[in-house]
Design brief:
The chain has about 150 residues and is of the alpha/beta class. Helices cover about 30% and strands about 20% of the residues. Strands 4-3-2-1-5-6-7 form a 7-stranded mixed sheet.
Length: about 150
């Protein structure tokens, strides 16, 4: 079980990690500024195993790989949204951060709710409600299981 941090539509990569923090040499140094403009305390409050749940078009904007990387570095177990910007989606899989499409969950949850996600079954559970999610293709699941694209090639 992990806590939900809920965000609206069109969260762009600059809102996930603002461009001025890209000057920091490591993801570990950047991660404390994650979602700074939307939730100043996100990096302090998120714990490993927590989830980001968003509406539509999550991760739009630039192709910066640091956006999914800071979420993974903070221990976010998965990002669940109605839809994702295509480049963010691929970058997330490539660095080993699960991104799951779930059309109905956003409208039924709030920040602070507890969620369990079974990626193999494609089911998210919040309280006594179950939400059907898109199952990742086997090859993408294998990339995630290995920790990202580069690790899966070794």
């Amino acid at each position: 079980m992990g806590k939900i941090f809920r965000f609206d539509s069109d969260v762009d990569t600059d809102q996930i990690i603002a461009s001025q923090y890209l000057l920091y040499p490591t993801i570990d140094e950047m991660k404390s500024f994650t979602f700074e403009s939307l939730d100043r305390d996100f990096a302090k409050n998120v714990k490993p195993g927590d989830y980001v749940v968003a509406c539509e078009n999550f991760g739009c904007g630039s192709s910066r790989e640091q956006a999914p990387s800071v979420l993974k570095a903070l221990g976010v177990k998965a990002v669940v949204a109605k839809s994702f910007a295509r480049i963010f989606y691929r970058n997330a899989i490539n660095i080993g951060l699960p991104v799951i499409v779930c059309k109905d969950i956003y409208d039924c949850v709030k920040s602070g709710d507890e969620m369990q996600l079974d990626m193999l079954k494609g089911v998210a559970t919040v309280g006594d409600k179950e939400f059907e999610c898109t199952k990742l293709p086997e090859y993408m699941q294998q990339i995630l299981d290995k920790g990202g694209l580069l690790a899966s090639l070794e």
